Amino acid sequence: MKPIILGVCSAFFFAFTFVLNRMMEVEGGSWIWSASLRFFFMVPLLLIIVIARKKLSATFAEMKKAPMQWVMWSTIGFGLFYAPLCYASAYGPSWLIAGTWQITIISGSLLAPLFYETIQTSKGPIQVKGKIPFKSLAMALIILLGVAIMQIEHATTLSLVSVLLCTLPILVASFAYPLGNRKMMVVVSNRLDAYQRVLGMTIASLPFWIILAIYGLITAGPPSTSQVIQSGWVALFSGVIATVLFFAATNMVKGDMKKLGAVEATQSLEVLFALLGEMILLGMPLPTYVSCIGIVLVIVGMALNSYVSSRKGNKETKEEMKQATTL
């Protein structure tokens, strides 16, 4: 239950990303600065936390063991996740971006065969290749239906090109985030806590953000004062608080792909939080009843997916343990 609660809390703070990014877009700010400034601000914020916990030297020592893996998976997990999300914010409201983002639940489940699960047997723990949790995935398809309904409604007011520019970047991000996160969990094992891992991944992804910022300076000019301030809030709420909460939750269940999928499913609540935030901060009207149906399906799909993952996960794990002892 604790990992699920942490996941819900992280969804609340993650929602600030979608709302504030949309605010910056409406005010004329470039998505490039919305993306890169967040991670520039995250570095000093996380440094303060890790130094206060007296774990900075251990973090750097761990990064020195596999610098190329840190750079590669951090660039994928942070760079190819957040830059596309900011780009998509130019083509849709925050609740739509947050709702479409929930396909990461399906994307994360499809990545299961790329990893190994730890199973306890009478002979000790063994590593078993992960399997796609089809029963949980069936529930997640309800989320996909909700996303499709929202996007179809959105498509009635925009061109096909604009709809694709909104959805395709999010599709890339939906695979990049869980892939980078899970790969880094494998690299560091239990040697770093959530704060250290987020700091390490932020620092390791800086080359990507520096290159993107240089491109932004050339093509869009420097960011406005308002965008800098809002990016700072995104860095604090989403980059630090939400990311650490989410990583802490996934770290608790990293040996069980089904429970990991359930934790990732809590992020579906971002769409509800983003909708409320946009209505309060931007004065946006309530979406049409068709879009509301899509939002409800996304949230219901999240709840069912979490329930199936927790119920079926325990049963299937026991069966796998029984089979493992006969090998």
Brief summary of the model shown:
With 327 residues, the chain is mostly helical.
Low-confidence stretches: 316-327
Helices and strands, in N-to-C order? HHHHHHEEHHHHHHHH
Distance between the terminal alpha carbons, to the nearest Å? Answer: 33 Å
Structural class: mainly alpha
Query: What is the radius of gyration computed over CA atoms, rounded to a whole number of angstroms?
Result: 20 Å
Helical content class: over 70%
| Overall number of domains | 1
* Count of helix runs: 14
Spatial strand order of the main sheet: 1-2
The profile of the biggest β sheet is: 2 strands, antiparallel
**Overall outline:** globular
Kindly describe this structure.
By secondary structure, the chain is mostly helical. The chain has one domain (2-324). The protein contains 14 helices and 2 strands. It has a two-stranded antiparallel ribbon. Helix 1 packs antiparallel against helix 11 (225-252) and helix 12 runs antiparallel to helix 14 (289-324). The radius of gyration is 20 Å and the shape is globular. It starts with a helix and ends with a helix. Mean pLDDT is 82; it is low at 316-327.
